[in-house]
Amino acid sequence: MKTYRPTSKSRRQMTTVSYRGVLTASKPTKSLVHGFRRMVGRNSQGRITMRHKGGGHKRLYREVDFLYNKIDIPAEIKSVEYDPNRSAFIGLAQYKDGEKRYVVLPKSIKPGDSFLVSEKAELAPGNRLPLRSIPVGTFVYNVEIKPRGGAKIGRSAGIFAQVVANADGYTNLKMPSTEIRKINENCWASIGTVSNEEYHLQNFGKAGRSRWKGIRPTVRGTAMNPVDHPYGGGEGRQGRGIKRPKTKWGKVTGGRKTRTPKKYSNIFIVSRRRTGETK
User: Fold this and answer.
1) pLDDT band at residue 277 using 50, 70 and 90 as cut-offs
2) What pLDDT shows up at residue 21?
3) Which among 151, 213, 231, 232 would be 20 to 30 A from 249, CA to CA?
4) What are the boundaries of the region Disordered (predicted)?
5) What DSSP state is assigned to residue 199?
């Protein structure tokens, strides 16, 4: 992590990921980027459906490959790059046939290293294999939920899932949330842990950096008026005044189970995630 001299109040607590010595390119590959409009929490009618989103710096979208459909063709990492749309580092991979694609990088990989998508690939960081070929205890990322459906699980910075069992056509994966879930053994996964593991240790230091990121302020309910929130109103500081915690719209938010009781994926969950402060 990079710390700063306390030249101002915001600098005193500010910490950032040290990109020097990690990133090797300052500009993205032009053929793999395009402009796009962020929805910033609005629906197709322009109404806010998710609070605290809006503004922020304009971004270019990097087309990251999560399908990995070039089988048995070696690829070499040409650069390690920053992506404003995700927490992990991405890398420019050039395949043996000349095609270039962006991929999410695992930890400790650097330019010049190579990876392979193959059923017979070695258990090396970045290589991609079917779950049935990965031994118990291995850390994986970029995991598919349906065979050849593209990576959906384990794509954020510093994240990994762990193979805990292989039986009856399914692989049991321990998720970052501590949930243990059955996934078809024909799904593919990459070996290793996602890069930029220090991402969650950042301290923005000032409100302005949050605004640059597109994060708008969050106001406490108890600081509002009664018309705006169930916790609002009262002379001075008041407790919430109701038995159960509620959202701005009066919905119970603490202690009520929100998962659909008959959800299709219930049969694939071996052990539910542990909730609370200690995971």
Assistant:
1) low
2) 85
3) 213
4) 220-258
5) G
Please check whether residues 39 and 170 belong to one and the same domain: yes
Number of domains in the chain: 2
Amino acid at 70: K
Question: How many Å apart are CA 9 and CA 16, to the nearest integer?
Answer: 16
One DSSP character per residue, 153-166 reads ES-STT--EEEEEE
Tally Cβ neighbours within 10 Å of residue 220. 9
Torsion of CA 217, 16, 156, 209, to 10 degrees: 20
Question: What are 211-239's pLDDT values in tens digits?
Answer: 999 999 999 999 999 999 999 999 999 88
Q: Is residue 91 part of a domain?
A: yes
Q: What is the mean pLDDT of residues 76-91?
A: 96
- Residue-range definition of the domain harbouring residue 2: 1-16+202-213
Amino acid occupying residue 91: G
Q: Would you say 246 and 254 are in contact if contact means Cβ atoms under 8 Å apart?
A: no
The encoded tokens of residue 12 equal: 């005193």
